[in-house]
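User: Show me a protein chain along with its predicted structure.
Assistant: Here is one chain, sequence first, then C-alpha cells.
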Amino acid sequence: MKLRMISLILALLLCSVALFACQSGTNTETLAPEDGSNAEAPVESEVFDAGNFSVNVAKGWKAFPSKDLFSDEENAMDPDRCSVCKGGETEFDLFSKPYIQFDYYGPDREMMRPTKDLYDKAEDLEPITAGETTWEGFVAESAGTKVAILFYETDEGTHQYQASCWFGSNGDGISFTDADVLEILSSVRPSAK
C-alpha cells in the first residue's frame, strides 16, 4: 500500500513538473489548418498496442506506455493510456517535446470530458478530420503551455478517445496540418482481441 501511495505521489509530482517546465512560447498559428483542409500524404509508421487500443506511431515519434497507478501489480501498465512523443527517446522527453497523450474509453467506461473552464484562454477548435476520423475539442493554456484537448467517438458511441496534444517547449511544436500528426490521429482503434 505504501509503495502504491508513493508511486501515485511521484506520478503527480512528475505531472506538476511537466506542466511548469513547459512554459516557453509555442507557435499558436500551428494549432489548426488555415484553409480547413487536411492534406494527407503517406507516412511511414508502426502500430503501438497499449492493451485495449492501438495507435500508429509515425516515423520520428516514439510511443510510451503509461503506468497503471491503481493496479496492485508492480510495474503494471495502463491498457487505456499511452503517449506518443515527437523526437522522443526517453519518457523525460515528455517534459519538453511535443506529444499526444491518448486515453481510451471502451464499452465498459464512460468518458468524462474535461470542460474549457478548467483551462486558461480556452477556445473551440474547428473539427479536425484525419482520415475517416473527426476530432472535436478546444485549445487552451495549462500552466502557460498550449494544449489541445480533442475528443473522438465511433458512430455507435461504444469506443471513445481523448487526445491531449501538448505542443512542446522548444519551439518545435506540431500542427494539425502535419502529415505525421494526421496519421497518428487517424489511426486510433480498439485492439484486436
